[in-house]
Amino acid sequence: MNPRQQCIACLERTPPSTFEAAAWVATEHDGQVDFRAVRDQLNALERSVSAALPSLPAAELAQPLLRQLATLGFQQDDAAQPKPQAALIHKVLERRRGQPLGLAMVALEIARRLEIPLEGVNFPGHFLLRVPGADHSLDPCGGRRLYPKDCRELLLRQFGAQMQLNAEHMQTATPAAMLQRLSRNLRYLHQLNDDLIAALKDATRVMELGQANTSDYLARASLYQHLDCPQAERFDLEHALMLSEDPVQRMRLTQRLVQLPGVGALH
């Protein structure tokens, strides 16, 4: 199987192997990913974290785990010009720097190995973690507790007053949702760094990992436009038009389709 198929196969296991799936995503972009080295790094990290954890019930160890990872150098990558290495899981593990989702994936894997209950929260703009049933979330970048008031403030800082906190923002992230979010992050980072072919791989993976939205089709259409592939661009624009419920956006999409060369949709 190729890396894409391996990634999907990891998610179809019982239970799914989220970290390994992310490693196969990395392999799709970097054929030099050394799975043995990654495993050795994880084993060493597990030992270091385990040795430093207090003697508490497993349900109370999630925050100490995150704090210990921070002590060992795992921090948010806040580079002014972010690069794909902030999301590629083998680089996050190697550099101990990454986006919140990458840091969360490392923490979730160590928690799984140590049988510490922990789950992902698909919060907009900043991936979070949570002990199942807890009344608060945890920031993967250091382990700070976030109560609803803190989450509202986080939304306000990132999106402005127009976005209000709702239950959908606090939903548990499935493994497939995490990999789809990772793929969206990588799509953005690769495009930001002018690697359009890599971004196209990520954009297509988004489609394969779950239900795509209007923005997903528009993002891939934009890549096809830059790569001068009008037939593929038309295919994605037509799907974006079918999904869009915004009258202004629908009008603009219709105009854009009219301006494309006269080719039929893909079949």
From TrEMBL:
Domain Protein SirB1 N-terminal, chain residue ranges per copy: 37-183
InterPro entries: SirB1_N
Family designation: Belongs to the UPF0162 family.
Designated name of the protein: Protein SirB1 N-terminal domain-containing protein
Organism: Pseudomonas graminis
